[in-house]
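so my prof wants the structure for this chain in the C-alpha cells format not the other one, which i didnt know existed until like an hour ago. anyway here's the sequence
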Amino acid sequence: MKSFNRFYAFIAQIISLEDTSLEKLASYGGWLSRLLPNRELPPEIEITEEMLRLQAFKVDKKEQGSASLSPGDTQPLAAISEFGAKPYTEDEKKELSEIIKSFNDRHGTQFTEAQMARIEAVNPEIVDDNMREMLRNNPPDVVRSAYDQAVFQGMIRMFQNDAEMRDIILTDPEIRNKVTSYLFGRALRDAQRVA
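here's what i got, hopefully its the right format
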C-alpha cells in the first residue's frame, strides 16, 4: 500500500491521470496505512470494521500550470515567515497546563510543559493534505472519529521509545481523551486558518 501511494504521488505530479477512482484509492490508502500497524510496531489495538470505513472524502483540483522557468524571471522568493510550532492561544496555554497537572497528579510524574508539548509532534505526522481537507471541509463531529484514530496511532508510534508516557497514554482513556481533544482543537484551528 505504501509503495502504491509513493508511486501514485510521483506519477500524479508528472501526468494528469483523470481517474477519480485511483485518486480515491490513493487517498484511502494513505489514511489506512497510518491506521494499520507496521513491522516495527506491533498492533496495540484491534482494528474494527468501523475504523476502516472512510467517513469523508473530497477531491479538489488545487492548481494547474507549468513549473518551467522563463528567461528573464527575476521575482525573488518569499522569505519563510513562520518556523516551528504555532504560538499558543491563551485558552490552549490554560488547557495544556491543566493536562500537565492532571497527568502528573494522576500518575505521580513530574512532566514539564516542554515534555508534554512534544506530543504535538504527532500532528505534523498525521495532518497531511487529506486530513487537512477533512478538517477543513467537514463539521468537527464528523471528522473527530477519523482524527482520534489517526492521532492515537501517531502517538503509539511516537512514544515507542518512551515507555512511561506511552504506557500512560495507552492505559488511561481519560488522559488520552484530554490530550486528543487538545490536539484536535489545535489541528482544527490550524486547518481553518490556512483556508
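also thought this was worth mentioning. The chain has a mean pLDDT of 77.
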